[in-house]
Design a protein that fits this description.
Distance between the termini: 56 Å
Helix content: 25-40%
CATH architecture of the largest domain: 3-Layer(aba) Sandwich
Number of helices: 15
Radius of gyration: 24 Å
Oligomer: single chain
CATH superfamily of the largest domain: Mur-like, catalytic domain
Strand content: 15-25%
Length: 480
């Protein structure tokens, strides 16, 4: 493809308009002949350090930030300088991978994104739509894509292009705060955007809740078009943030929650292994038996049911009825097994104070005696939430075991110590396998065990090395 088809004419030297590029690359090691190499600045290193390697591997042109261009330096290949390199990257990726599914929706929020996009995918399939989801669990149609919650702009546009080629025309994408802040979803025409909830997370990156919210709100302020559908869970987002983000003049809106909402929750009854929910929609009452446990999962399911109506062939009432056939998402309040005393063992991805409290409250409803909790905290992440998670554990579980959870480059004992300041009565067992085995060995009739933090993950990251580890597999092997 010629550069004139990727960049706007005013962005590049007229002499470069006819230059052919074979592809786009962010990784100098994967550059192929005649690729355009994009030299992004990362958190640790700059892509500028790898320009020579990229050229040696075949790059015939470079995209760099204007602030990184060295005056009077002669680069061996043409250089295109831009002010906002990440925004420019999303634009050129969109132009390079032009074919995309017709109905694309994006879901943001601190918790619930993975469940919502999975539910959206399930609901669309109930209406015989060929659909896919992209997010923490990877690409539901294309195997091997699972690096980030929201892939980089090149990978995301490339996946959308491949999905279109495969006949997929409905796609749900997880929109992380990092992905939104780094313009990864820009220049994609999305028909709907959903906001699940907002609570503390990723402050190691965003620094403040205001900056974190601003990143999330970009989905609605900058990306969702004027005629797009905006879906909000009003009970789980503080009113001050809702006031800032809801723009009734700009978007079509569906709100979900108790009180006056488009989808009004009248009653939620938590039963064993399912939930009965009574709703008021378009002045009509609807009663549903949803095969999920946890009130927060009901909110996720309702957000999904509303968001799928971005496909205008589906109305909200028909969409809501499909919730009675939903399947739970791997690692999201997932019932794994029972031990010999009939005590239940659950796995959940909760890794924020609010998510941990939500899931503990829900499992408590089904616990007659002691509620056991095993959890840790990731290294090189928001330190401030560790004490808060410890305090939640102290307040809402009967027996807490603090263990390791992807310590990365941090001292694991320091991470556990940060948690134990809030969880003063917790047991500390560094080895996660031993922590799970210790809890299972103690479980008696009427008890339940909740293993939190890793959910669907099948690896443990220690000192930049990745080891195989799955809470689900460990639980089954111990019981066997």
């Amino acid at each position: 493809m010629k550069l004139k088809n990727v960049f706007s004419i005013e962005e590049i030297n007229p002499n470069l308009l006819e230059l052919d590029i074979s592809g786009l690359s962010l990784d100098s090691r994967r550059v192929k002949k005649d690729n355009l190499f994009i030299a992004l600045d990362g958190h640790v290193e700059s892509g500028m350090n790898y320009i020579n390697e990229a050229i040696d591997n075949g790059a015939n042109s470079l995209l760099v930030s204007n602030v990184n261009i060295i005056e009077n330096h002669n680069y061996p290949v043409p250089v295109i300088g831009v002010d906002n390199i990440r925004l420019s990257l999303s634009k050129i990726a969109s132009n390079f991978y032009q074919d995309k599914p017709n109905t694309i929706v994006a879901v943001t929020g601190t918790n619930g994104k993975t469940s919502v996009v999975n539910f959206i995918d399930q609901i669309w399939k109930k209406f015989s739509k060929k659909s896919a989801s992209i997010g923490t669990l990877g690409n539901s149609v294309l195997p091997g894509y699972s690096d980030l919650t929201t892939p980089d702009a090149i990978a995301l546009h490339a996946q959308l292009n491949l999905l279109k080629d495969a006949g997929v025309d409905n796609v749900a994408i997880e929109a992380s705060s990092h992905g939104l802040d780094q313009y990864r979803i820009d220049n994609i025409y999305i028909r709907a955007a959903a906001f699940t909830n907002l609570s503390r997370d990723h402050l190691d990156y965003h620094q403040t809740m205001e900056a974190y919210f601003k990143a999330k709100s970009r989905l609605f302020d900058d990306i969702l078009p004027r005629d797009g559908l905006a879906v909000y869970s009003t009970d789980t987002i503080e009113k001050k943030y809702l006031r800032e983000i809801i723009n009734k003049e700009k978007h079509n809106i569906i709100t979900i929650g108790r009180g006056e909402n488009d989808i009004q929750i009248l009653q939620i009854d938590n039963l064993w292994r399912h939930t009965v929910v009574k709703l008021s929609v378009n002045q009509k009452e609807i009663k549903l038996k949803v095969p999920l446990i946890g009130e927060f999962q009901i909110y996720n399911a309702l957000v999904a049911a509303a968001t799928v109506t971005a496909d205008r062939e589906i109305n909200i009432t028909e969409s809501l009825k499909t919730l009675e056939t939903l399947k739970s998402v791997k690692g999201r309040l997932e019932f794994v097994a029972r031990n010999k005393y009939n005590a239940g063992i659950y796995v959940d991805y909760a890794h924020t104070p609010e998510a941990l409290e939500f899931v503990l409250r829900e499992v408590r409803k089904h616990t007659k005696k002691n509620l056991y909790l095993i959890f840790g905290a990731g290294g090189n992440r928001d330190i401030g939430k560790r004490y808060l998670m410890g305090k939640v554990a102290e307040d809402f579980s009967d027996v807490t075991i603090v263990t390791d959870d992807n310590p990365r480059n941090e001292d694991p004992s320091k991470i556990r110590g940060d948690i134990l300041i809030g969880a003063k009565n917790a047991i500390e067992i560094d080895d996660r396998y031993e922590a799970i085995k210790t809890a299972i060995d103690q479980l008696k009739e009427g008890d339940n065990l909740l293993v939190c933090g890793k959910g669907h993950e099948e690896t443990m990251i220690i000192n930049n090395k990745t080891y195989s580890f799955s809470d689900h597999s460990v639980i089954i092997s111990i019981l066997n």
